[in-house]
Design a protein that fits this description.
Layout (H helix, E strand, L loop, with lengths): L3 E6 L6 H14 L6 E7 L4 H8 L4 E5 L16 H6 L4 E4 L2 H6 L4 H13 L3 E6 L3 H5 L3 H16 L8 E4 L13 H16 L3 H6 L2 E4 L4 H8 L6 E4 L6 H10 L5
Parallel strand pairs: 1-2, 1-8, 2-3, 3-4, 4-5, 5-6, 6-7, 7-8
Helix pairs in contact: 1-2, 1-11, 5-7, 7-8, 10-11
Bound molecules: 2-phosphoglycolic acid.
The site of 2-phosphoglycolic acid has 13 residues, from strand 8.
């Protein structure tokens, strides 16, 4: 059985004081429940702080990106091994902001995904279409291209150690959420695309939804069969919102 995962993506937000306040609010409020995982993905400089504060809690942590190379003369790069050194469990790869603002291609994303897997991290591979792509009817083609780049490079088996996040670009930070039907359709498509190569890997693959998830819409989204939790941007910076979203991933008592 696939469990659920709620992962916060802090993006380039926070500081030592606000991170501490946020985590100290989350830790006592989020309790371990079988089949549900929680994580926060923090900016690189704060990974040590996050590790110290979250150690021993049921909230895991990760990074928002990593360098595709192992080590060496890559000024500004942060390797998968460095993230593993801070006991990161996750690394987001291919977030749409990395693709559009920093020019990351499918090929670079595939290399980053492979680097994360090799270091024993769980990559959270983000895929999703822009508004113009949706309007021109190529959503499935775009998502298939993004997933295939990784499957061709690392093999479908690598998805057995990964998480996929479907994040329609037009829903990120805009307050516009995909309708349950739009999300359901793309999640099912992603699972079918992976199943075409390996049914067991597809059945076990956690596929998160991301894009303006908040406490008010999380329960409905998480109840959709192919949606296995969420990747939460803006709402993960607010303790009350994030706690409420985490609770929506828990099975009804
Ligand atoms: P959002 O961001 O929840 O602020 O829309 C989601 C993401 O970009 O991961």
């Amino acid at each position: 059985m696939r469990g659920k995962l709620v992962a916060g993506n802090w993006k380039m937000n926070g500081n030592l004081a606000s991170n501490q306040a946020l985590l100290q609010a989350l830790i006592p409020a989020i309790s371990p429940i079988a089949g549900v995982k929680y994580a926060v993905c923090a900016p690189f400089p704060y990974l040590g702080q996050v590790q110290q504060l979250l150690r021993g809690s049921c909230i895991e942590w990760g990074a928002q990106d990593l360098c595709q190379f192992d080590h060496g003369a890559y000024t500004g790069g942060v390797s998968a091994a460095m993230l593993a050194d801070f006991n990161c469990r996750y690394a987001i790869v291919g977030h749409s902001e990395r693709r559009s603002v920093f020019g990351e291609t499918d090929e670079i994303v595939a290399l980053k995904f492979a680097a994360a897997i090799q270091a024993g991290l769980t990559p959270i591979l983000c895929v999703g279409e822009s508004l113009s792509e949706r309007e021109s009817g190529v959503t499935e083609a775009v998502v298939a291209r993004q997933i295939n780049a990784v499957m061709v490079h690392s093999g479908v088996a690598a998805l057995g150690r990964a998480v996929v996040a479907y994040e329609p670009v037009w829903a990120i930070g805009t307050g516009k959420t995909a309708t349950p039907e739009q999300a359901r359709a793309v999640h099912a498509f992603i699972r079918r695309s992976v199943a075409a190569r390996d049914e067991a890997i597809a059945a076990a693959l956690p596929i998160l939804y991301g894009g303006s998830v908040k406490a008010a819409n999380a329960a409905q989204l998480f109840s959709i069969p192919d949606i296995d939790g969420g990747l939460i941007g803006g709402a993960s910076l607010n303790a009350e919102e994030f706690i409420a979203i985490c609770r929506c991933a828990q099975p009804a008592a």
